Recover the amino acids of this structure.
């Protein structure tokens, strides 16, 4: 088989997941590129090669979740049965993120029971924890931090593989927690929880006039009840734990640590590769460790030596023949189509590699079937590891 | 035949990667045929429409971005919730300089962040305002408005403005605004379409999404099955491949005779392998297609375009939609 990318260095997934100094693998990329499947396949492969793995998935397909035994949404990692260990005594636990439950846990862990109850029942908290844009990303990061802390403390796992939420853009995974943190720690919300205090701190006359006008407009359009709920929520969380931003920052810094390896997942399509490009640039700018790019759904051809043009010309010659000739003609036309799709994918990928020449890449062929059992996950893992 | 002449608001949703932006743009193009004017609206700030039409990023302002066959016009608008809120407040209060001060302080962003429902109400509200121009016979009215909406997982929540707002305000301007929005979205002039691929996850999401929309009493329109590959083998040919009704050696011989210069055994094995992969995919797709057909909704099929989608392909997809009877 001819190489899909002629120039890019090869991403050796086994070298990444078998590296004992790597403890976190983050799979990221735009929606619909097979991120969850990739995360699950990497986790299974690492476990079957001796590592003690926990995989945190966000929104797996139902049958994939069933195959991994995570039908129960209880926010706790559960052992995956049916491993075929190739090497060592590895284990695999899997869980699906329940963002509300994770948020509730944070509250319950940090507040005394009465105050926790008050927070959990606050209507603003309820909408924040279940439908706020960014909560899922924040909680994915929070859960990652928790799992990592647990792994450090009791040696349950030595590798955590994380899938990232299906965000608007892949960058949201990195940005949303800080955004939510600075929102919750921000000055407006402070003013709402205590308008008099906010104005009295000498924010300046214009600012306080602005705030006064602002809160009055806000209470008109949102209703004063919403503002009261927000105020009492902020007052309650203030006394129980430190800033949300600091919490988010702590996990964020974990992502910069060399124990982490980012695996960017894409398909050889313009949008997905553009997203991957943005993400790679951002990781570089923030000094985050990038392992490489997984390119899913690559068009395979079984006869690489026969070009599209040759196949089409031969197909045309066979058009006038008997049924067998026409069948072979159709097979050649099919081959020509595959070559064309592959050539287009290579062109799009070349745009990526010319901008990011040093990023290692591994490819996974477009699979004829869907992935929803351990056997096919194992197969994906093998394809990922082929160098 | 899908007669959408009574539908003025088309909401296009679908799983990420299924091509909802492409379908929204092609639908806007198709509905603009023969002298009509349509508006395609972007609400997620991704500038996907601008990329498709190969134009600079869209501002919060209606712009003509393409001409449709028969003197039609396609316009586009990227709605921004923060801008929409300033707009909206300005129509109730004389904000003057306070409006820009609030924006500078980040107050606008804060308000829409504080109440995520508010953001959706402002976005859908802008769409409904545009739709209602037609009722008012305003000169800047459109024959149809197409929203490139959030993905299937969020669509019911996005459109279900009343439930979003009931948590916010029981009276007052936002409440009245929401009632206006619901008056448009809940009416027969609105249709919510879902875009899917013939793969397990997108189809499952489509089925779940439709159940959710129906539960919220939102008007479900059609299912767009996108990127469908043309079968390359007819029924007899498929069955010969499946039953090994032709030997690899024979395939190799015939291909070699037609000019393929490779060892005949390799050709036979290679072509057979590709044909089997192809049939396996076709079978899976047929299973997914059956699940979509069971939904009992109009189904529109759009072809897979190996070269990708740019402006020229949008015209082709709009033409396909027209041929499938959309009017």
């Amino acid at each position: 088989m001819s190489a899909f990318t002629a120039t890019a260095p090869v991403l050796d997934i086994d070298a990444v997941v078998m590296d004992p100094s790597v403890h976190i693998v983050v799979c990221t990329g735009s929606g619909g590129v097979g991120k969850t499947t990739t995360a699950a396949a990497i986790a299974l492969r690492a476990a079957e090669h001796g590592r003690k793995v926990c995989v945190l998935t966000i929104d797996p397909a139902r049958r994939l979740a069933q195959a991994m035994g995570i039908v129960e949404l209880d926010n706790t990692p559960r052992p995956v049965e049916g491993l075929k260990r190739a090497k060592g005594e590895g284990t695999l636990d899997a869980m699906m993120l329940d963002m509300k439950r994770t948020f509730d846990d944070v509250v319950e862990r940090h507040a005394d029971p009465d105050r926790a109850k008050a927070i959990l029942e606050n209507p603003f908290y309820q909408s924040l924890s279940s439908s706020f844009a960014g909560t899922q990303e924040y909680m994915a990061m929070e859960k990652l931090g928790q799992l990592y802390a647990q792994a450090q403390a009791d040696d349950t796992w030595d590798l955590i593989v994380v899938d990232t939420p299906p965000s608007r853009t892949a960058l949201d995974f990195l940005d949303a927690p800080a955004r939510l943190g600075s929102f919750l720690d921000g000055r407006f919300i402070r003013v709402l929880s205590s308008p008099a205090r906010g104005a009295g701190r000498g924010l300046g006359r214009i600012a306080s006039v602005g705030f006064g006008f602002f809160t009055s407009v806000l209470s008109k359009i949102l209703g004063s009840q919403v503002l009261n709920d927000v105020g009492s929520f902020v007052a309650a969380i203030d006394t129980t734990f430190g800033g949300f931003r600091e919490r988010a920052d702590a996990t964020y810094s974990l992502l910069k640590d060399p124990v982490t390896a980012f695996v960017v997942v894409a398909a050889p399509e313009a949008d997905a590769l553009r997203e991957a490009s943005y993400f790679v640039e951002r990781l570089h700018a923030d000094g985050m460790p990038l392992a490489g790019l997984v390119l899913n759904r690559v068009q395979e051809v079984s006869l690489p030596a026969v070009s599209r043009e040759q196949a089409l010309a031969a197909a045309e010659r066979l058009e006038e023949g008997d049924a067998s000739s026409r069948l072979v003609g159709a097979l050649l036309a099919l081959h020509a189509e595959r070559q064309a799709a592959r050539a287009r994918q290579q062109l799009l990928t070349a745009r990526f590699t010319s901008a990011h020449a040093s990023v290692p890449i591994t490819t996974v062929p477009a699979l004829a079937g869907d992935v929803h059992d351990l056997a096919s996950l194992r197969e994906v893992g093998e394809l990922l590891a082929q160098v | 035949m899908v007669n959408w002449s009574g539908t003025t608001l088309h909401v296009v949703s679908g799983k990420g990667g299924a091509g909802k932006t492409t379908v929204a743009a092609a639908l806007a193009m198709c509905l603009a045929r023969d002298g009509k004017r349509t508006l395609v609206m972007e609400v997620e700030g991704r500038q996907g429409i601008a990329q498709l039409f190969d134009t600079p990023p869209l501002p919060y302002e209606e712009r003509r971005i393409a001409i449709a066959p028969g003197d039609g016009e396609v316009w586009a608008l990227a709605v921004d919730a923060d801008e929409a809120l300033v707009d909206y407040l300005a129509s109730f209060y004389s904000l003057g300089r306070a409006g820009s001060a609030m924006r500078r302080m980040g107050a606008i962003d804060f308000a829409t962040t504080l109440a995520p429902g508010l953001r959706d109400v402002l976005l859908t509200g802008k769409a409904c305002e545009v739709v209602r121009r037609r009722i008012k016979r305003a000169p800047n009215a459109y024959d149809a408005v197409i929203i490139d909406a959030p993905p299937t997982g969020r669509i019911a929540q996005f459109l279900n403005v009343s439930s979003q707002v009931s948590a916010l305000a029981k009276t007052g301007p936002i409440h009245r605004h929401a009632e206006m929005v619901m008056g448009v979205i809940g009416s027969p002039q609105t249709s919510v379409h879902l875009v899917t691929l013939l793969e397990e996850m997108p189809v499952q999401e489509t089925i779940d999404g439709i159940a959710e929309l129906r539960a919220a009493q939102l008007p479900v329109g059609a299912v767009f099955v996108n990127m469908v590959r043309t079968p390359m083998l007819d029924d007899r040919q498929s069955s010969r491949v499946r039953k090994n009704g032709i030997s690899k050696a024979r395939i190799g011989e015939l291909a070699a005779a037609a000019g393929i210069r490779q060892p005949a055994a390799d050709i036979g094995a290679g072509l057979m392998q590709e044909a089997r992969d192809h049939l396996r995919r076709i079978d899976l797709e047929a299973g997914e297609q059956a699940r979509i057909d069971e939904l009992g909704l109009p189904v529109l099929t759009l072809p897979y375009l190996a070269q990708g989608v740019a402006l020229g392909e949008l015209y082709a997809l709009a033409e396909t939609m027209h041929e499938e009877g959309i009017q």
Summary: The domain at 13-185+252-303+357-385 of chain A is CATH 3.40.50.300 (Rossmann fold). The radius of gyration of chain A is 25 Å. DSSP finds 17 helices and eight strands in chain A. Residues 48 and 85 of chain A are 4 Å apart (CA to CA).
